[in-house]
Design brief:
Elements: H1 3-29, H2 35-42, H3 44-52, H4 57-78, H5 83-101, H6 104-112, H7 120-149, H8 151-156, H9 161-183, H10 188-202, H11 206-231, H12 235-256
Helix pairs in contact: 1-7, 1-9, 1-10, 1-11, 2-5, 2-10, 3-4, 3-5, 3-6, 4-5, 4-9, 6-9, 7-9, 9-10, 10-11, 10-12, 11-12
Length: about 260
């Protein structure tokens, strides 16, 4: 793989990681850390169907994830079941269907990702989606924070909290869709959560927390992708391991220096 291709893939991965970590930072505050991981498995049937028809797996993943988040949003509004339980319901059903219909040769790629197979135009689309997610999230992050403080307070405010939650779920669907192509269904949850948890260790303000979440995501990709190429290893696992190392460093920094 030539240097130009590695730079392009690194840029793509960095923006995917930044958007995933930014949205994931809110997920951590809402105590929904396992939702991103569970939703990544919901995309498996969509990816299998897309691959069967020669369509980009990102498209298939997004369609299935969108249907899932709409179902979760509707049931959350009209039942007493917690969102985590609803995600678990969709997760188990989709995973079972996905394993049954995904060809064995495609299953490995779906589980662990393959950023090397992203075409130039698919990469451009991924970059555009990542930037869009960051912009949209930043526009209504303050409204989302009301739901973090108190769902009851949010319900009594003038904001349409149900619509805000739906928009947030759709953003999660987008980042999981593009993250799956990058690190696969098994590791997407780590891409979303680990940089955010690392940022929480050292951040002293909410603004700093959001910023550091995105920065740690970018650093994980910028170090992990070239490192994986140099070591002839899959990119996804290396990027996730770099983010885990960052978390360990911030954890001990907090223990030793933070007051």
């Amino acid at each position: 793989m030539d240097v130009g291709n590695i730079i392009f893939l690194t840029l793509t991965g960095a923006l995917v990681a930044a958007s995933s970590s930014y949205v994931g930072s809110i997920m951590v505050l809402k105590r929904m850390s396992l939702v991103g991981d569970a939703l990544s498995h919901v995309a498996l049937p969509g990816m299998a169907i897309a691959l069967a028809f020669g369509i980009s797996p990102i498209v298939g993943a997004f369609v299935f994830l969108s249907l899932a988040v709409l179902g979760i949003w509707y049931l959350e509004k009209n039942s007493d079941t917690y969102p985590e339980a609803l995600v678990g319901l969709f997760f188990t059903a989709s995973l079972a269907i996905g394993v049954l219909i995904t060809k064995e040769v495609d299953l490995l790629e779906a589980l662990f990702g393959s950023i090397e197979k992203i075409s130039f135009y698919e990469g451009l689309a991924t970059i555009a989606l990542s930037v869009s997610v960051i912009i949209v999230t930043s526009l209504f992050v303050k409204k989302l924070m009301i739901t973090v403080i108190s769902e009851e307070l949010a319900q009594t405010s003038s904001e349409r909290i149900s619509t805000i939650n739906l928009l947030y779920y759709i953003l999660v669907a987008v980042i999981v869709s593009i993250g799956i192509r990058f690190v696969g269904t098994l590791l997407t949850g780590s891409l979303v959560i680990v940089p955010a948890v690392a940022a929480k260790n050292i951040s002293k303000s909410m603004k700093g927390y959001f910023l550091m979440s995105a920065v740690f995501g970018i650093v994980s990709a910028v170090i992990g992708i070239p490192l994986s190429k140099g070591l002839w290893l899959p990119s996804g696992p290396v990027v996730v391991l770099v983010s885990v190392v960052i978390f360990i460093i911030t954890f001990f920094y907090k223990k030793l220096f933070a007051r």
